[in-house]
Design goal:
The complex is a heterodimer. Chain A is α+β, with helices and mostly antiparallel strands. Chain A has 19 helices and 28 strands. In chain A, strands 3-5-1-12-9-10-11 form a seven-stranded mixed sheet, sandwiched between helices. Chain A has a five-stranded mixed sheet with strand order 7-15-14-13-8. A four-stranded mixed sheet of chain A has the order 18-26-27-28, with helices on both faces. Chain A is globular, with a radius of gyration of 27 Å. Chain B has 13 helices and twelve strands. The relative contact order of chain B is 0.13. Classes of the chains: A alpha+beta, B alpha+beta. At the A-B interface, α3 and α19 of A face α8 and α13 of B.
């Protein structure tokens, strides 16, 4: 547990004794490399789009190796129990079974955050939730492996189980993790900036409410899957549906006790992740261990039910928020207290706990701020990072409170957000450096697109509009394990044929990072995109990248790609210039050709230009890297949430409330997102729409929870309802390009930020539609009906508890 | 992924062959029509058949026709006969169904999603197993809580101390067919019998159908409206989480006839997705007779009559009090759906 208090002052430039040893921060500005952009900003297809659409693309489960075995995992049927005995004799004796593994064979503890290693590949002494993995089998087929699981005998001593985080916080007699220094608390953060109590006391308007954000899952279409081969050369190869191959590589070495150079991790095409494939998972270790034991390739494919047990979904948060506003509509202070339900393990929980407060200090200027967040263990599937990690939940609370305050102050909700706009090139109250900031333009776009001024208040009974805003990181300078090396790297190989191969460590999880790498290299080298091939996420071939999380890839890998390609570009320009006897600046690289700017008839193909360069220099290749600048507040935890650039989003939602049934439909969601320069507009729009879709599902339909026995209540896609195409709003995605000085060509993130405001915008629209404030997600029809009845009762009583009497008359 | 346990597969080409196989294998056999529900249930270990008998090659079980008509030139006095293997997609769009029983088309259209309806059949939906949040899960899941009354266990997780299974009928078309007073034709090697669909279901969630192990549902027969009627109407309304795919949280069907001046002379209201049997609400015809289907006060009275006797349980996900409160709302919507549809 750490309690840290910030000074509230912007960070001074600190002398860093290690700075000399740290990989440099290097950026190239928002300008095109040549006269104008040829590739960047164009509406291009994804480089892997056709293969995915036709079914040619190879996902991990498409891979099959000779002699391959199939693995299955035995899981705990108890939410909390001590393992007294495991006997695998009968399972091992079953015909068709080649190997069985238990936790005792892989005792090393791991965890994606090095400070909180509290997981083992398989449980050893204790199980902590229903579905916790206990043993694994490799057999000739899945049927045999499944039968073998039934033959494994496990004696359990059942323990009292904790499902309620408030109870987990209070109980000292039941511990999910014995030996934890602070009972069931996994992390506690208290940070205070300025004087929130004093400011609230002096505020003209103050609202204080309890909010609840329920648990939600990622529900990727591809479940977890891993295939391992242990070769006679002693090399362990793991193909896995992971979004962070590098951490899998590190943890495999540790848990399997193998030298890291003997391990190769490959991420094939991946069918959705959304944060849920960021941790190392049991099946990756079990596939590897069983491959080593049996000397045969072993594949594990999780069922949908196992996917829900592996979880790492959005943390449920119980949030008390208190926010003040002055008469002229300025936020005076925000004070929050948040109880976070972590489930059975730490996962990314340390970061989640910080993010629940650290990422709330823009785009609105908050002069005084305190957050006190506590994450506790419970006997439930472990929570982790889901799209908008840690900040989607408090953002819901804050943006609803802003509307409550706007109503009290008699101000338009968009106007309140305009008045509090923090602006560009500023420092937040918690010491985060903000560079480009187009939030004000985002508000303009959604205000206009939704017809806010003309339509709000005139839509008729049961219909309304709501707005919300948000910010998110483009990666963070808090590296999960401390090191001085780059956060991202790119290598480029140039072939005489005119093909350029880009080796990228980044995980394309559908967001299009391979496409963006290809676009950048094509732009820099003046090539056609189809002549650039990307090889990604293979630890033998590609430089390290820290993974597809924190919305870091476009910014960081993009900068590394510019760095690597810019070096080559200069070499090619120089060599061609020498050949032609002109100045290098005159050599234009564009569209698959090199030509003389002053004599445009003088042109050669890219292939010819590369051949000339290779003849002059040597075998062509290039590397590039990116590392963050030193950022963050000067206090413990001040670097967590410190990003080289922040994205900003504004959203307007339109709702229709069926007051008879409580069923809310959302005909339209308008989202405008400041992504810096949109390197690939189609991908940006896709990310905005996908984010809004995901947020919409979380508001009404999706609910990850356990029943009274601690069993996941809905571990399948019939009961865990994600929106179908006929349930969806019409999504209107726009982007605002506030060119960032440090992003590649000025780009920032687009993958996670746009989710945040969807949820409070819908909540605020429901209030606009029918005068109720909904504070506890999900907004089931039953809750809506109950709130409407409370509204009617309050109106009948002539009063107006909870501000509902201030709702518009119908 | 979840795998199927091994079983033998038989694919008869005729009803005679199918019932012979049923006679031979009895309880060891499981019929499969479209398979949209049987397949997941097999994967969940809810059925452990030795033989699965697939009906896809039995052509005589498909088709929609009018039988026994004659007096009326347009055949409106005939019996609407639907083969059990007719797909829901065919039922929802067939001109005879749209003309004679528009509510049945609505109910068929509300089953699952378009892909399931191209496989799923009317007979399969009539014979759909009951559902419960505690049963339609994997074997691991059910085993973890010690099973339940419906399969392998001795306790009910819905009704504490309950001794009979309360899994809910969740078949959209059955609700409507009950309202229409349909008859089911059932074949076995022993012969053929007809049973009113309202007598077909029994109040046992573990097995809610009066169907012997050697029997096969072959036809669904919707009777002609009584000759005295001016017009007949039917409508369906379904409460569900999403606008596609989902089973009902409340399933409500209405059917009524009007006399020559447009007054109701007979009416039926059926509520399902509550317990094992679609419930025909008592006293509806008496309340409705002489009234008009566009009278909001009358519809509200009928809805209240249904709400009073409808007690939702936690066998289905969703707030029980809210589901009960939705009964009159969806009665109203079923009437509205009927009035919007083409009348016969």
């Amino acid at each position: 547990m750490s309690s840290s208090h910030g000074s509230g002052k912007p960070p001074a430039d600190r002398a860093d004794p290690l700075q000399h040893a740290r990989s440099p921060n290097r950026t190239f500005g928002p300008q095109p490399p040549g006269e104008q952009f040829e590739v960047i900003g164009k509406r291009l297809r994804k480089v892997d789009g056709a293969g995915k659409a036709t079914g040619e693309a190879l996902y991990t489960d498409d891979l099959a190796l000779p002699g391959m075995l199939h693995g299955k995992t035995l899981r705990s049927p108890h939410p909390h129990a001590r393992i007294k005995r495991i006997d695998t004799t009968k399972a091992e004796a079953l015909a068709g079974v080649f190997g069985v593994v238990t936790g005792a064979e892989m005792p090393a503890r791991f965890g994606v955050i090095p400070w909180t290693p509290d997981e083992t590949a398989l449980c050893i002494d204790k199980v902590r939730f229903i579905g916790d993995p206990v043993a694994a089998v490799a057999a000739v087929d899945e049927e045999t492996a499944t039968r073998a699981l039934d033959l494994i005998e496990v004696d359990y001593e059942q323990l009292p189980a904790l499902f309620d985080p408030a109870e987990a916080l209070a109980r000292k007699d039941v511990l999910v993790h014995e030996g934890n220094k602070h009972g069931n608390i996994t992390k506690e953060v208290l940070l205070e900036f300025g004087d929130p109590d004093g400011a609230l006391a002096k505020s003209d308007f103050v609202v204080e409410d309890d909010y609840f954000f329920h648990g939600t899952a990622h529900a990727p279409i591809e479940t977890h899957v891993a295939l391992a081969r242990y070769g006679s050369d002693g090399v362990l190869t793991l193909w896995s549906a992971t979004q962070i191959p590098h951490y899998v590589h590190r943890e495999l070495a540790k848990v399997l006790d193998l030298p890291a150079p003997q391990i190769r991790v490959i991420q094939p095409c991946l069918g959705g992740a959304f944060g849920g494939k960021s941790d190392p998972f049991s099946l990756e270790f079990c596939a590897a261990k069983l491959a080593m034991k049996t000397r045969r390739p072993v594949k594990f494919l999780y069922t949908r039910e196992e996917e829900f047990y592996a979880h790492r979904g959005r943390h449920p948060m119980a949030m008390r928020f208190k926010t003040g506003l002055s008469k002229d509509g300025r936020i005076t202070a925000v004070d929050s207290k948040i109880l976070i339900d972590g489930g059975a393990y730490s996962s990314f929980g340390l970061v989640t706990t910080y993010y629940s407060g650290q990422l709330l200090t823009g785009p609105h200027q908050i002069p005084n701020y305190r957050f006190h967040s506590t994450r506790v263990f419970t006997n439930k599937p472990p929570c982790g990072p889901k799209r908008g990690h840690g900040s989607v939940q408090p953002r819901f609370a804050l943006e609803v409170q802003l509307d409550r305050l706007a109503e009290k102050a008699g101000l338009d909700p968009i106007e309140v957000r305009r008045r509090n706009f923090q602006g560009a090139y500023t420092t937040t109250v918690n010491g985060q450096r903000v560079t480009s900031n187009g939030f004000d333009q985002c508000l303009d776009v959604v205000e206009k697109a939704s017809g806010w001024k003309e339509r709000r208040g005139k839509l008729g009974r049961g219909r309304g509009l709501g707005v919300a805003g948000s910010m998110y990181i483009s990666g963070t300078n808090y590296c999960i394990y401390p090191n001085d090396m780059p956060q991202a790297g790119i290598q480029i190989k140039v072939d005489r044929s005119g093909l350029v191969t880009v080796f990228s460590g980044a995980s394309d999880i559908g967001q299009g990072s391979n496409s963006v790498a290809a676009y950048i290299v094509a732009e820099e080298l003046g090539m056609r995109v189809e002549d650039v091939r990307v090889v990604a996420a293979d630890s033998d071939l590609c430089p390290v990248d820290l993974g597809a999380y924190s919305s870091r890839i476009t910014f960081m890998v993009g900068n590394a790609a510019v760095h690597a390609a810019r070096k080559l570009r200069k070499q090619v320009q120089a060599a061609v210039a020498q050949e032609w006897g002109i100045e290098p600046e005159r050599v234009v690289l564009a569209g698959g050709f090199a030509f003389d700017k002053d004599d445009r008839g003088k042109a050669i193909t890219s292939a010819k230009a590369f051949q000339i360069t290779e003849a002059v220099l040597e075998t062509l290749g290039s590397t590039g890297s990116y590392n963050t600048p030193n950022l963050g507040g000067d206090y413990r935890g001040g670097t967590i949430g410190a990003s080289p650039a922040y994205s900003f989003t504004a959203c307007v939602a339109e709702v229709e409330v069926d007051e008879e049934t409580g069923i809310v439909t959302v005909p339209h969601v308008w989202t405008a997102h400041d992504c810096g320069r949109a390197l690939a507009p189609v991908l940006v729009e896709g990310q905005i729409e996908g984010s809004a879709y995901m947020g919409f599902g979380e508001v009404f339909l999706e609910h990850h929870d356990v029943n009274r026995y601690g069993l996941h209540a809905r571990p399948n896609l019939l009961d865990y309802t994600i929106p179908t195409s006929v349930d969806c709003p019409e999504f209107h995605a726009s982007y605002v390009e506030s060119l960032d000085p440090e992003g590649p060509y000025g780009a920032k993130e687009a993958g996670e930020g746009p989710l945040h405001p969807t949820i409070p915008a819908i909540a605020n629209a429901i209030h606009d539609a029918c005068g109720i404030w909904l504070t506890k997600l999900p907004f089931t029809p039953a809750k809506v009906v109950a709130a409407l009845q409370a509204r009617d009762a309050a109106r009948a009583a002539g009063g107006g508890a909870n501000g509902t009497a201030n709702g518009r008359a119908h | 992924m979840l795998r199927l346990e091994p079983f033998a597969f038989a694919r008869p080409g005729s009803v005679d062959e199918a019932v012979a196989l049923l006679a031979k294998h009895g309880r060891a056999a499981r019929l499969i029509a479209g398979g949209t529900d049987v397949m997941p249930n097999l994967k969940h270990g809810l059925y452990e058949p030795e033989v699965v008998i697939g009906l896809s090659a039995v052509a005589e079980l498909r088709g929609i026709a009018l039988e026994g008509g004659g007096a009326a030139a347009n055949g409106s006095d005939g019996e609407l006969v639907i083969g059990a293997m007719t797909t829901l997609a065919e039922v929802e769009s067939h001109p005879l169904v749209l003309a004679r029983a528009p509510g049945l088309a609505q109910a068929a259209r509300s089953v699952a999603g378009p892909t399931q309806r191209t496989m799923g059949t009317l007979g399969g939906n009539v014979c759909l197993d009951t559902r419960c949040v505690w049963i339609n899960q994997s074997h691991f899941w059910r085993k973890s809580l010690g099973y339940c009354l419906k399969k392998d266990g001795t306790v009910c997780h819905v009704v504490q101390g309950g001794k009979s299974c309360v899994a809910a009928a969740s078949n959209d078309t059955a609700t409507l067919l009950c309202a229409l007073g349909a008859t089911l034709v059932i074949r076995s090697a022993r012969g053929v019998r007809a049973v009113a669909i309202r007598d077909f279901y029994k109040p046992d969630g573990a097995m809610n159908q009066r169907l012997e192990p050697d029997e096969l549902l072959t036809q669904i027969r919707v009777p002609a409206p009584r000759r005295s009627s001016g017009a007949s109407w039917s409508g369906y309304a379904k409460l569900r989480a999403r606008n596609s795919i989902d089973f009902p949280k409340l399933s409500i069907a209405v059917a009524w006839t009007t006399d020559r001046v447009g007054a109701i002379d007979d009416a039926t209201l059926v509520v399902s997705a509550i317990a094992a049997v679609p419930r025909v609400i008592a006293g509806i015809a008496d309340l409705a007779r002489g009234g008009r289907a566009d009278d909001p006060a009358l519809i509200a009275r009928l809805g209240e009559q249904a709400r009073k006797v409808t007690i939702p349980l936690t066998n289905i996900d969703g707030d029980t009090g809210w589901r009960r409160a939705m009964v009159p709302v969806f009665v109203k919507r079923a009437f509205a759906a009927a009035r919007m549809a083409t009348t016969g």
